[in-house]
Specification:
By secondary structure, the chain is of the alpha/beta class. The chain has 5 helices and 6 strands, in the order αββαβαβαββα. The protein has a 6-stranded mixed beta sheet. The radius of gyration is 15 Å and the shape is globular. The N and C termini lie far apart (44 Å). Residues 5-17 have low confidence and may be disordered.
Length: 171
Amino acid sequence: MIRGLLAVLLAAALAPQEQNLGNSYLGKAPPELVSEKDQWLNSEPLQLAKLKGKVVWIEFGFLKCPPCRKMKPNLIRWHKDYAEKGLVVLDISDGTMDKFDDLKKEVEEKGEKFPVLWDKEAKNCLAYGIQAYPQAYLIGVDGNVIWEGLPSPKNEKIEQLITAELAKVKK
């Protein structure tokens, strides 16, 4: 818990929002996700390699993270507005910070419909080198990262990148 709170405080103290506090994969394919079937909500297990041709927003966070909570309305709206156009919103919850039942309850109460991965032992958080929350990666149709960093709910650049990349999705 203390590790997560320190990560949130560190993220809040840093400016600008473009700061990246995870491994950099800009221009490269990020690591494949590691998970078990029972760690997923709203989806069967996803593999990034099978999502090529779509636009993918991966966001790492945890339930009690204030900046993560501020981003949730964006994730919900992006899923609602862009899923049919080819956007896959994927929320990865640090399992060392959250209990699965608490996460499941939150997802149900908020009406989140996008895939949520409970990263039980933080294997994905560790593989991505996550040091602060939320940390996000925008993956283009070619499977490579086109944006990474600490997202902000008011960052118009992110949404512009999403819509521009969605224009490349083959229907």
